[in-house]
Amino acid sequence: MVVLTVLILATIWNITKLAANPNYLPITLHTSVIRMKSDIYIELKEDLLKSDSNLYNKVVRNKSLYVSLRGIVVILLILAVLFQLKTLITSFTKESLFRPDNIRPVRKISYLLIIWILVDLTFYLCIPLFIPRSVISNTYNFLPIKGNAFNQIVGIFTLLASINYGVLLSAFAFYVISIVFKEGNLLKEQADLTI
Question: What value does the mean pLDDT take over residues 112-117?
């Protein structure tokens, strides 16, 4: 918990420094490819960045702002999932596993993980708000609805690549576990009525 608090405070500090000092550059770009998240890279037009220092500063600041905002949202979602896990573990200490108190936290965890995926996709689709379109190489297609057929296919695969499938499978697993707990609760109630 302390580590997460330190990460949140460091991210807020970085955003505050960006807002207070327009000349502050938290990172420097050594290549024309920037990494927006773990599996999304964007190729930038190097000649534009070299010729216009203000544009370079804007790209660097906006990338840092993007990473910071995305980090805060992900950390908050992780905290919400951890709180639901804590609730679930404390409810396991009761006499039975198949109780309505156990169903809700598991279902909430699956919903939070789905929200995580949707937030991640939203941040992916908001990349053009942070990095100007004029700087991004023409070969990259954010939305799979523009361009010729090849660009649409590339855009669809890029969009599919931006999905965190580990989180998606975890959300599905927690949802299935919540269904199992619900059915176990119904069977337990039926068994209690027959005795």
Answer: 93
